[in-house]
Design goal:
With 299 residues, the chain is of the alpha+beta class. It has helices at residues 7-23, 29-36, 40-52, 85-88, 139-150, 190-197, 248-260, 267-274, 285-294; strands at residues 56-57, 67-68, 113-121, 129-134, 158-162, 165-168, 182-184, 203-207, 213-224, 233-238. The protein has an eight-stranded mixed sheet with strand order 7-6-5-8-9-3-4-10, covered by helices on one side. The protein has a two-stranded antiparallel sheet with strand order 1-2. The longest helix has 17 residues, at 7-23. The two termini are 37 Å apart.
Length: 299
């Protein structure tokens, strides 16, 4: 029987099938692009083509929602890049690790100290940054505060890095191929992190290990809690968050160059991919704080 797809389409279907079979969920478009060594717009256009041919189905606006509509016996076996450890981490689970002891009390009683952080996306020129204020909280919640303040969608893996130590969600730790510097962040709060690494740690928040977004997280000062203020909150910032899966800081620069030039060969593809106009200078403090209050989806 002649297949209902081209050889190129077959490679996409092959990777998607292998990924779903191995890890129990669909790949992100950035992972497809990395595996097949193609650009984000190319992946997006291929997904539309596969949908048009009724080979896959997706939910609009929902990450990792690709569903195969073709009998898997018709799909060729994946023979490309080995599925990476980063991918494996999405589905491996383990019991939460116990903390080595109780978290220290804050200076003015538990929960009364406000930490002011400036979060800057490394490599962004002019800088993309946010200033947030938060009470003491677990790193799992701090991750959510950073995501919503910046404008990310929690579609990829993340970690907090202090020197050689990487703190991450315990569900993402792979015991079989473990990094000796990787630790669960269960039981680790902001105050404990400062106790363990000093009052001014060189803290990096890493997000999407494929695109490689890194954020400098600098503790600027601590203040007393203000009555009637809801924390965490964003108090200042500048510029829009890059689109997900755009290819990291260099891919983002290429994206901005392309959409700014109507004559660029990828202009129309990028405009369609991003869903219309994109303003890199946009910053809406009210909307950001709404997002911080509503929280993140989880995948």
């Amino acid at each position: 029987m002649t297949p209902s797809f081209t050889p190129t389409q077959g490679r996409y279907l092959s990777f998607i099938s292998a990924y779903i079979d191995g890890f129990g969920l669909a790949p992100a478009e950035s992972e497809i692009g990395e595996a097949l060594e193609v650009s984000a717009p190319s992946v997006n256009q291929m997904m539309k083509m596969l949908e048009k041919k009724s080979l896959i189905r997706r939910q609009a606006g929902v990450a990792r929602s690709i569903e195969l509509l073709i009998d898997q016996t018709e799909i060729p076996k994946w023979t490309g890049k080995r599925l990476s450890r980063t991918v494996m981490q999405w589905v491996r689970t383990k019991p939460p690790m116990k903390s080595s002891g109780p978290a220290p009390q804050t200076q003015s009683g538990s929960g009364q100290v406000v930490y002011q952080f400036k979060i800057t996306l490394n490599g962004s020129k002019p800088p993309i940054w946010r200033r947030i204020e938060t009470l003491d909280m677990p790193l799992a919640k701090f991750h959510q505060a950073i995501q919503t303040a910046m404008g990310w969608t929690n579609s990829h893996l993340h970690s907090f890095e202090v020197g050689q130590t990487h703190y991450t969600d315990p569900r993402m730790i792979d015991d079989g191929f473990g990094d000796p510097n990787e630790r669960s962040y269960m039981g680790i709060s902001i105050s404990r992190l400062l106790q363990d690494h000093g009052p001014k740690p060189r803290l990096i928040y890493a997000y999407d290990f494929g695109d490689g977004w890194e954020h400098k997280v600098a503790l600027e000062k601590t203040t007393a809690r203000q009555p009637g203020v809801q924390y965490p909150r964003c108090t200042a910032g500048a510029r829009s968050c890059p689109p997900e899966d755009v290819g990291g800081i260099y891919g983002y620069a290429h994206f901005l160059q392309s959409i700014a030039d109507p004559e660029h060969e990828e202009h129309d593809d990028f405009i369609e991919w991003v869903g219309g106009d994109f303003d890199p200078e946009a910053f809406d403090l009210v909307e950001i704080n709404k997002s911080m209050k509503s929280g993140l989806p989880s995948y």
